[in-house]
Description:
Layout: H1 3-14, H2 21-36, E1 49-51, E2 54-56, H3 59-63, H4 69-86, E3 93-98, H5 108-113, E4 119-124, H6 128-140, E5 148-151, E6 168-170, H7 183-191, E7 199-201, E8 204-214, E9 224-235, H8 237-240, E10 245-248, E11 253-256, E12 259-263, H9 265-268, E13 273-283, E14 286-288, E15 299-303, E16 312-319, E17 325-330
Parallel strand pairs: 3-4, 3-6, 4-5, 6-7
Antiparallel strand pairs: 1-2, 8-9, 8-13, 10-11, 12-16, 13-14, 13-15, 16-17
Amino acid sequence: MNLKDELLRISSQLFEESSDYSSTLKEYKQLLRSISNQIIDSEAYRNNIHCKNGIAIGTVWAANCLDDLERTRKFIKGIERAIQERIHQKDSLHILYAGTGPFASLILPFVLRYANFNITYTLLEINPLSFEALKSTIQKFDLETHRINFINTDATKYQFAKSISPDIIVSETMQRALDSEQQVAVFYNLMRQSNPDTVFIPEKITLSIGTSSYKNDEPNIQQKYYRSHHNVFEVSKEAMGSNDWWFDKTTAELNFTKKQTILKSKELSIALEIVVMTEITIYKNEKLLINESGLTAPKYIQDISNNKKKPLTIYSRYVFGSKPKLELRIV
């Protein structure tokens, strides 16, 4: 099997409106996994890297992101729209992908799709094992002749060279509720160096305080229904320029405004749990909504099924550190 031809065949199907996305993405996953069996087949590839601003996940776990088919599908569709909007506006494009994992799976289909256009790709990966696997992946697909720069570095500290001005920055380095990983720190570092018209994908990530309840009263069908009550944190260019993000010169650290959410008795009357909900705007109308992906699965916070009368006040603030998260206090 010619791997490059197979990648081209599958990539072409990804962009056909009539394509069976689920089947095509499974083929894509199987193709990438078929070249990785010998590359990432040891315990060392499971180890996360612990950084000042969160973890960078191990190579195996980064490869497993392909299992989230809806995440992959919608990110590829969002990136395609962003490229399409810019490809005819400029003589060249520069796409920077931070946190590539071993495959650069969100960008790989575009290298062949836009082979005849002047696009430069800069691939950033902090994990040295993932980085070596990434270079091996590009080599196995015979893509070395394309304009691809490889940089083994921490995207939260990476500084653009004077000659670099990315048009599109892609980084999906997150878990649900923006727990643990470096997404916020990566966004902050790369976007503050970028031009005002640089597109960051995902374009916006919103965390909200929500509640769960059963969708119906049938005892044999206990499907949960989730309701968002109050948006409490946002990652976007607009948010970064607002008063909700502020840099403390004394501590030389980025800080975020504390938010207050009040859940009234009426809102709690049928509620089972307090949860943190995540919604991702990948690009414009391409979104990952609640429970469409592992990235947007609700995060359980507290059982409130016995609290039917007393209103609750929830204080929340996103915090940096080795374990970044939305910090909550319920009163």
